[in-house]
Amino acid sequence: KKKYNVVYLGAVEGFEVVTSVLNDCCDVTHVEAVVDKVASSLMEADALVDASMKVKITNSILEQAGNLKIVSCATTGSDHISREKALERGIKISTLKEDKELLQNLTPAAELSWALLMACARKLSGAYEHVKRGGWVREEFPGVMLNGKQLGLVGFGRIGGWMSKYAKAFGMKVIVYDPYVSSLPESVEAANLEDLFANSDFISIHVHLTEDTRDLVSSKLLSSIKKGAVLINTSRGDIVSQEGLLMGLKSGRISAAGLDVLQGEPDIDQSPLVQYCRENSNLIITPHIGGFSPDAVTLVCKRAAEKVKKCFSE
Ligand code: NAD
């Protein structure tokens, strides 16, 4: 029986699950995300399972991939693939965009956003460093109780929706600014952006970066934030003014912030926010780890591999 030749691009956890889905009908090769290696492996391949997006699948790569029938992306985006050339060559491109139920259950970015919020509320970063240095003085780390406080969510899509569920479980009131959502659940209230910033104890940003959302959280908006509020951003660095955020943190108007994304990342050597967080424990920064969890990788790769199998059986 002929075995199809499948190339897999991505983290090792994904490779294991792709192999387990396809091993009865395919030989699966794990290829490093290096342009030349991908190009030469695809010359003989029938399918590509792409969980990486790190290599641009260009016209020239697709031109040379004589047997390729499908590129199955374990992501929602496929901007890294030359669509026109794929269409011309009859290569199917599949993504997870339509897999709404699967996407809804991918929670690592929402969970990290909540972890940052709690870490800011309880000053975890500073307290942990304090104990590592031999300290044991709790008076230096007064915590904020979440119960009864207000969370303002900017963006009420997948991640914003999960954040509101977590907040409700912690006894918080939730208000939302999202002009594109037509109806909100009864448990949350709509607000305009200015009111949300002026009245919320915690504010978390969950919108995509577009020309409309670039600098949406501007210096001006940050200067009107409720005194002592906490700001969380796991969306994209360019949505929040870094000058405004720094000014707020330095003045104490913003009591703490948690970020998983930065302007200019991954080139962060010159980032004033990174420099600030080296000296101050009220800013926690993580290196864009929100969506990165082997559990999630396994789920998305399984679905992408199933699509390859279906394509071969059609
Ligand atoms: P989503 O598409 O489900 O929701 C986005 C919401 O933003 C939508 O409801 C939309 O109506 C709303 N919106 C659009 N423009 C707006 C505006 N101008 N003002 C207010 N709301 C607006 O997206 P999601 O899956 O919840 O993801 C949100 C963000 O999280 C994205 O930027 C994504 O890139 C980021 N993200 C980061 C990580 C990470 O690793 N840190 C992982 C996954 C997603």
From TrEMBL:
Domain D-isomer specific 2-hydroxyacid dehydrogenase NAD-binding: 115-290
Keyword Isomerase: no
Pfam families: 2-Hacid_dh, 2-Hacid_dh_C
All residue ranges annotated as the D-isomer specific 2-hydroxyacid dehydrogenase catalytic domain in the record: 32-95
Listed InterPro entries: D-2-hydroxyacid_DH (IPR050857), D-isomer_2_OHA_DH_cat_dom (IPR006139), D-isomer_DH_NAD-bd (IPR006140), NAD(P)-bd_dom_sf (IPR036291)
Domain of life: Bacteria
Family note: Belongs to the D-isomer specific 2-hydroxyacid dehydrogenase family.
Name by which UniProt lists this protein: Hydroxypyruvate reductase
Organism: Litoribacillus peritrichatus
Upper lineage: Bacteria, Pseudomonadati, Pseudomonadota, Gammaproteobacteria, Oceanospirillales
